[in-house]
Specification:
By secondary structure, the protein is α+β, with helices and mostly antiparallel strands. Helix content is 22%, strand content 26%. It contains five helices and ten strands.
Length: 209
């Protein structure tokens, strides 16, 4: 009898187990998101008070008690201007946020009594460089202040084993013309030809053949 009772209890436990939902019996650990290689890094740059606005940057314009004139996520056009109700096109590129706020304030005084304007640079999209070719993670990267070409390649994960380290070059726009700057990686990491380890500028593209 005792043995039968034990076997009966075992069968009952097994039946209850099988009755449970599959998700409860086989609960799997959720996988952590895996970053995509070569995907643009999140914008970690913060615009200080002396930051000069450039085409491609994104602005938040706030006019106190004037929601119809205020605007968020306003991109600076390639011509360096933005469009504001009442004052139309306003030059933004080449100005700091406070200087632009002052310019917008001056334009709005013709239509509004005592306008109070605040400008915030919410996206520094102009401060970017590009890496293509034989690097571990090519793509678009945020340009940090004072970043050199060697540091930029390091941020891209370094060169692959197939890269021709002697024929890397940087494409840059100067005075409206595209120029090619040589970058001998092998020499530079040896401490030679250091003049080629230039400080990057916004829009530079590093080519690693």
């Amino acid at each position: 009898m005792k043995r039968k009772a034990l076997m009966g209890g075992t069968y009952l436990a097994l039946a209850l187990f099988l009755a449970l939902p599959a998700a409860a019996r086989h609960k799997k650990k959720q996988a952590s998101p895996v970053p995509v290689a070569g995907a643009p890094a999140p914008n970690s740059l913060v615009a200080g008070p002396d930051y000069v606005i450039n085409p491609g940057d994104v602005l938040d314009i706030s006019v106190w008690k004037e929601p119809d004139i205020s605007s968020k996520g306003l991109p600076v056009r390639p011509d360096g201007k933005i469009s504001i109700p009442l004052v139309n096109d306003v030059q933004a590129s080449g100005l700091t946020a406070s200087q632009l706020a002052s310019s917008i304030t001056t334009g709005l005084k013709k239509f509004i009594a005592g306008p109070q304007v605040t400008v915030v640079v919410s996206g520094i999209n102009s401060q970017r460089y590009y890496v293509v070719g034989e690097v571990e993670h090519g793509g678009v990267f945020p340009l940090l202040p004072g970043m050199s070409a060697l540091q930029a390649i390091s941020a891209a994960g370094g060169l692959t084993q197939f890269a021709n380290s002697k024929k890397i070059y940087i494409l840059r726009i100067q005075n409206g013309q595209q120029v090619k700057l040589p970058f001998n990686y092998k020499q530079i990491i040896r401490g030679q030809d250091m003049q080629e380890n230039v400080q990057l500028k916004p829009g530079d593209t590093i080519i690693a053949p």
